[in-house]
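Researcher: Going back to the complex we discussed earlier. I've cleaned up the inputs and rechecked each line, so this should be the final set. Can you rerun the prediction on the complete assembly and write out the structure?
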Amino acid sequence: MAKLRCQISMSVDGFVAGPNPDESQPLGEGGERLHEWVFKLAAWREPHGEPGGEVNASSEVLEEITSGVGATIMGRNMFGGGPGPWGDEPWRGWWGEEPPFHMPVFVLTHHEREPLEMSGGTTFTFVTEGIERALELARETAGGKDIALAGGAEAIQQYAAAGTLDELTLNVPPVLLGGGTPLFGKRAAAVALEPAGVVEGPDATHLRYRIGLGGPDRGQARPSPG
Amino acid sequence: MAKLRCQISMSVDGFVAGPNPDESQPLGEGGERLHEWVFKLAAWREPHGEPGGEVNASSEVLEEITSGVGATIMGRNMFGGGPGPWGDEPWRGWWGEEPPFHMPVFVLTHHEREPLEMSGGTTFTFVTEGIERALELARETAGGKDIALAGGAEAIQQYAAAGTLDELTLNVPPVLLGGGTPLFGKRAAAVALEPAGVVEGPDATHLRYRIGLGGPDRGQARPSPG
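Model: Rerun complete. Updated structure for the full complex:
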């Protein structure tokens, strides 16, 4: 079966965003430092419409976000626009009129909204029936390809704790944040990690894991879907 | 100049001990899982008087703790025996009568005490004049060799924030703790990390960093002494 895969940048001390996030600083204090490793890569610049950039050991890891992926899932916090109902001039995402996904994107939310078709093949579909339903819709759309879970931490935690996240790659730049949004927080006990390799990039180390359920089955990753 | 080097096991989510440590569980809930990678290594078993064991990619990393090292520094919490004055039957450490250090060990404490000579070359010297004085004494004793900083988190944080810790290796097994003692906590802003390599062991990933000062000089590791 197609896999649900996730990649997220995390500080060495385990935070996926810095302290005190707000609208002007959605990644929190210092949080943008988690992503500096990616901005210089050609593999990031090209889909974002920027020329040039480097190719290094991190490029291949970044390319996996889209390679063999037929749909993306993200949480409401990552899509943005604040909590609560969408209002009269609903938020259209952080990414401008041509978002870099170029595929169907399913947004987890408690607030209903019509699908939003953007330029370049990205359609945001808003799912109010929960994480399992969003995954089901993504699988139907993806035509056998894998699903990318884009974030944020809350969505990742929910899928991991439910046992439906298959693979997690942590992109770890040499950054300490000292506080902020923890990767798993109190849901850590529900999640087991099985090492699946390490890639050493010049500006970030990439730690790959297969995800299993914690608790009584702690340490037992589910069998690979093959 | 001889370097101050440190190695510590840390969970993927950034904790060096689990929640709620007490005398029966000094590493906190689940904290012993951080150290399982080491117990099977011949390089750990031999100095602890245990036969057999594996040799793998983690062995070399472990051997660096003692290789070229002439003295060790540790905090009072790591030496153990609870906080406060030493009392009438003072604590002799967690390691029995022949501790695995086999070298002078300087223990940071607020409470004076005569040096304690153990079997096998380990002498515990109790330093009440602060971290700089302990480092000075360790350097005098080490005869040009490096100094190992054994832990715990508080001692590591103090040396790192003071700018006197040169190298840090984080041994990261596939463990999530969800809470506990953070590696740097609120002192993170005072510390800058510069990547110095990754070793992928079967049961832990080893992340090496050179340590610099954060704040205005953030990201600038001090020049290598060698």
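Model: Worth noting: The first helix of chain A runs from residue 36 to 39.
Researcher: Good, that matches what I expected from the previous run.
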